[in-house]
Amino acid sequence: MTTRRADIVTAIKARLQRWLFRVGGPEAGPITLGQRRIFVLPTGFGLALALTLLVMLLASINYTLSLGFALTFLIGGVAWVSIHHAFRNLVDLTVSPGRSEAVFCGEAARFGVQFHNTGRRPRLGLQLWPSGGAPGDDGFDIAPQAGAVHFVAIPTRQRGWLQLPRLHLETRHPLGLIRAWSLFQPDQRCLVYPTPAADAPPLHHDGDDHPGSTANGRGRDDFAGLRHHQASDSPRHVAWKSVARGGPWRTKEFDGGGSQRVWLDWQHLPPGAGIEARLSRLTRWVVDADAAGLEYGLRLPGVELPPATGSAHRHACLAALALFGLPTAHAQPAS
């Protein structure tokens, strides 16, 4: 019964927030912060000043102090104008999703959020953080008719797609008496790779069958010629002199036994290991093979990536491991 009551309260709270803040989920960019999406309330300092002004007003009335009236209404007028400035500091700002680089599980995902100021006045003293979290200390400004990118760090707890949560944008400019804020959720995701195993056995590539089967392939000892460039080729093997002369992109080939193709095969892992343990160990081997400059391929149930090198191939292998066994539209909830 208690659980059911908690679910009802959570559902009511979610519907109230969607109605009040007009944020029901990820929003396609660009997002314009109109006047109906900006909320204004006094800060603690503003409430203390309001109480002080009330006492000053009562004292001025009681003792008929002309200077007291003047000072009270002067300070009150400045505080009232600060409400307008705090509101104008956010209104008509445009928010768009930025870039987010893939990370390993356990690392913080950094989401880039793009702001564009179409007005002729600067936006000062802005702060951005995930809704429900603690505000950060790194405020930022946006110049007139200019843009800015601010990064939000979100902790990762599982592999897969991580959806950017609802964000809280706030300003207390100019006097700290008023806080104006808005909530929004750009439609942006970050891919989270599995955590590389810390206790994985070293990657062997001398002909052993474990952890992956190997076969002789193109070596890297003696220059053998040029071939058409592929996106997965390592930049170290590009014929840059030919490219600099305006020629086509070519990749150098080498002969020799200095390198081998390595297969990282799901079937060669210990059968008693769980899915996450296998993925973690394969992730470690992908990282090690890439660091060693080896040509490596990846075999998973239903997935096979042929041996290659380069950052694109590394990302393809790690992405296959990150999304293995997950629904296509899987998105990790951010909490």
TrEMBL record:
TM annotation in the entry: 38-59, 65-83
Chain residue ranges for the region called Disordered: 201-239
Comp. bias regions, Basic and acidic residues: 202-211, 218-236
UniProt entry keywords in alphabetical sequence: Membrane, Transmembrane, Transmembrane helix
Tree of life domain: Bacteria
This protein's name: Uncharacterized protein
Native species: Zoogloea ramigera
Lineage: Bacteria, Pseudomonadati, Pseudomonadota, Betaproteobacteria, Rhodocyclales
